[in-house]
């Protein structure tokens, strides 16, 4: 079966630019986007049950813009005024600048890394005396709290938002020739929304080792795995696979 129609389990690109559009033009494909999961904030009432006092902490570690949004949301719900002395350690420069949505940036102590948590730890270790709060999702990289614990950084893990399966009941999932996933949660959503789903000739592509493992653990066949040395992005991996697959069908 020639690959003509692909479903990417992410939101539709909102800037009108995406390597997926180039991939579609190049290979004469129809590529649709639909997020299989979404984020929901933990209500302030539920957060209180964890008995975490935000104001007992002198610094916050942000690993994403989503964590920024939900940290300030929970503070507002609980009527907490974050002191000007609070320090912010951000995974990247773009996450740091995103703080301007909530605070006067130039008047705060803000530190940021280059996108990798291991590099951010270099900055955190220079401020070992701080009491760090780490806002996270219910599904997060175990590396983060583990690294902080191993390096004896005083911290509190705060679960303030969760990853939830989206309602896909209106989606004709079996109409697609290929499904593209980026997290184990996406695979969980597929199973939850379509418990009778049979892969048959539908190709499945995944990004990252944990997603690949989730595909195989669910009993599905993994056809495309990214990143690869020759294809560091999902679109590059798809381009290589589709060209080879469609070419072989002509033989």
Give a topology summary.
Elements: E1 5-8, H1 19-27, E2 30-33, E3 37-41, H2 44-48, E4 59-62, H3 65-77, E5 87-90, H4 93-98, E6 109-112, H5 117-125, E7 132-137, H6 143-150, E8 155-165, E9 178-181, H7 184-193, E10 203-207, H8 209-217, E11 224-226, H9 234-250
Parallel strand pairs: 1-2, 1-9, 4-5, 4-7, 5-6, 7-8, 9-10, 10-11
Antiparallel strand pairs: 3-8
Helix pairs in contact: 1-9, 7-8
Helix fraction by DSSP (H/I, runs of at least 4): 25-40%
Q: Provide the CATH top-level class of the largest domain.
A: Alpha Beta
Number of helices: 9
Tally of individual domains = 2
The CATH architecture of the largest domain comes to: 3-Layer(aba) Sandwich
List the secondary-structure elements in sequence, H or E. EHEEHEHEHEHEHEEHEHEH
Descriptive account of the structure:
By secondary structure, the chain is of the alpha/beta class. It folds into 2 domains: 5-36 and 169-250, Rossmann fold (3-Layer(aba) Sandwich), CATH 3.40.50.10090; 40-163, Rossmann fold (3-Layer(aba) Sandwich), CATH 3.40.50.10090. Helix content is 34%, strand content 22%. The protein has helices spanning 19-27, 44-48, 65-77, 93-98, 117-125, 143-150, 184-193, 209-217, 234-250; strands spanning 5-8, 30-33, 37-41, 59-62, 87-90, 109-112, 132-137, 155-165, 178-181, 203-207, 224-226. The strands form 2 sheets. A 6-stranded mixed beta sheet has the order 3-8-7-4-5-6, sandwiched between helices. A 5-stranded parallel beta sheet has the order 2-1-9-10-11, sandwiched between helices. Helix 4 (93-98) links the parallel strand 5 (87-90) and strand 6 (109-112). The model has no long low-confidence stretch (mean pLDDT 93).
């Amino acid at each position: 079966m020639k690959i003509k129609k692909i479903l990417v389990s992410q939101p539709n690109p909102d800037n009108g630019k995406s390597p997926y559009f180039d991939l579609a033009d190049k290979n004469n494909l129809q590529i649709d986007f639909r997020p299989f999961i979404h984020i929901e904030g933990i209500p302030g009432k539920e957060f209180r049950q964890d008995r975490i006092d935000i104001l007992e902490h002198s610094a916050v570690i942000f690993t994403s813009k989503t964590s920024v949004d939900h940290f300030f949301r929970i503070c507002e719900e609980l009527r907490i005024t974050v002191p000007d002395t609070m320090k912010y350690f951000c995974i990247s420069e773009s996450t740091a600048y995103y703080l301007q949505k909530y605070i006067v940036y130039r008047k705060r102590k803000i530190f940021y890394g280059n996108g990798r948590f291991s590099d951010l730890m270099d900055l955190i270790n220079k401020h070992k005396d701080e009491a760090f709060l780490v806002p996270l999702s219910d599904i997060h990289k175990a590396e983060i709290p583990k690294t902080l614990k191993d390096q004896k950084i005083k911290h509190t893990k705060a679960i303030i938002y969760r990853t939830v399966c989206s309602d896909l009941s209106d989606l004709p999932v079996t109409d697609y020739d290929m499904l593209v996933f980026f997290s184990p949660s996406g695979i969980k959503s597929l199973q939850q929304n379509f418990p009778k789903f049979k892969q048959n000739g539908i190709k499945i592509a995944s990004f990252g080792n944990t997603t690949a493992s989730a595909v195989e653990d669910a009993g599905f066949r993994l056809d495309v795995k990214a990143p690869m040395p020759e294809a560091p992005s999902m679109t590059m991996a798809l381009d290589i696979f589709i060209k080879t697959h469609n070419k072989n069908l002509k033989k």
